[in-house]
Amino acid sequence: MAIALCLPFLPYMDFLSALIFMTAMYTGSLFGVAIPAILLNIPGSPAAVATTFDGFPMTQAGRHDEALGYALAASIIGQVVAYVILLFLVQSVAEVALKLGPPEMSIVAIWGLTLIAGLRGRHFSRGLVAGLFGLLIGTIGLSARGNIRGTMGFDVLLDGIPVIPAVIGMFAASELLNLAAKGQIVKDTKLQQVRIGRIVGAAFATLRYPMTLLRGSILGVIVGILPGGHAIANVLSYSEAKRTAKDPEKFGRGDPRGIIAAEAANASSEGGSMATLLALGIPTGGATAVMLVAFDMHNITGGPQFMHDHKDLVYAVILSNLAQAIILFFVGLAFVFGAVHVVKVPMRILAPMVLSLSIIGSYLITSSLVGPITLCVFSIFGWLLHRFDYPVAATVVGLLLARLTEGAFLRTYQMSGGHLSFLLERPIAMGLLALLAISFLVPLLRNTGNAASLNH
User: Is residue 247 part of a domain?
Assistant: First the structure.
């Protein structure tokens, strides 16, 4: 939305300045969505869903400044890793993106769907039910084949459920209803103190987790080149960090590794999406779609020809994003220091303010009352999920992946004619299937080994 609001200014800039201006907003917003996720358990966008899992428990424990420090550093490092990869491999990344068709996207979607059950360790069945509920409501509207489903005669639902108002409703409104009875998010006044030293200290402490940072950054770049990939990159990275940890039971209780994994992938997904935009002229999300409008304003067409004719612009954008990462540390640090004081605000003041902003934001997104109505309806759904101990995050993941999964499956079926042997002709698809199988087998073997040692 920030980029869209600034579109009228872009024709008065030269093309390079416009690109840098837009990517700077993109960079700032990808970190910005983590702030309400950590402080209020409200993700600023679907790309920050997994950040809430450990971010908000740290806030409740009075470690809000540390949590924001981890998120800031992980965002900066994730972006640096992504653009360093692009600096040397931008052409190769574009070639890989060209080879990622519907079969590969189907496998990535399945991978994302398998995370649903893992988002709630205690109740596997409840996580599965919540995820399937998200998939079901995500199929409302016109199908990939043009069939109308579940609209109940309302034309406004032909395009499906507005995702962002639904996510805001399930997280923001339902969480505020749960917090309304509390005086403040952090009750202990001693723990409400904000120290700049703790924020900076946590930022540098992020370097203690190099593998978590590297894995999250690489996953973010890979998944970010797919349409809608930024929305599942952070969940996928969080799940992999939890799966590979020696003590996965600590995740969800305020473990810094959860924040680092989620935010590194969230930030690095920008690099993947920008590679697809610059090298192929294909937007992978709302932000890059708006950027494509700026291309048209300057009579420039993205794609392979753009890469060939304007390599200087491509590398200038990449290098400017490395500079933006450095600037983000100082801008983010100043903003975080002010924003973190929200833990001191009484809920009787905070709840109405956040709800009002959520309703206004949902209206601006849809430009109609559909947004606020969706928010209100899904806030009730979210409250009921909380009330009966079903994971809201699983429902959100199902909602985000519904359209991607259905469309990819349909196109894969059309390409293959229903023959699974078609996958054997696609080495990248086979590689992704192997990774999917490993993600299942490793935890299974680990649990079997632990059970055997206990019996011994």
Answer: yes
Residue 456: inside a domain: no
Whether 378 is covered by a domain: the verdict is yes
pTM, two decimals, is 0.76
315 domain residue, yes or no: yes
123-to-49, 117, 394 alpha-carbon distances in Å: 19, 8, 12
Domain count, the chain: 1
Return per-residue pLDDT of the chain as tens, 456 residues: 778 777 778 888 888 898 899 899 988 988 988 888 888 887 877 778 889 889 888 988 888 889 999 999 999 999 999 999 888 877 676 666 667 777 777 777 777 666 665 555 556 677 778 888 888 888 888 777 777 887 887 777 887 888 878 887 887 766 676 666 666 666 655 656 667 888 889 999 999 999 999 999 998 888 887 766 677 788 888 888 888 888 888 888 889 999 999 999 999 988 888 887 877 777 777 677 778 777 777 877 766 667 777 778 888 888 999 999 999 999 988 888 887 777 777 777 777 887 888 888 888 878 888 888 988 888 888 888 877 878 777 787 788 778 777 877 788 888 877 777 777 778 777 877 887 777 666 555 555 555 455 455
Q: Which domain holds residue 141?
A: 2-425
Please enumerate in sequence order all residues whose Cβ is within 8 A of that of 262, keeping only pairs 6 or more positions apart, or say none: 48, 50, 51, 53, 74, 216, 234, 235, 237, 238
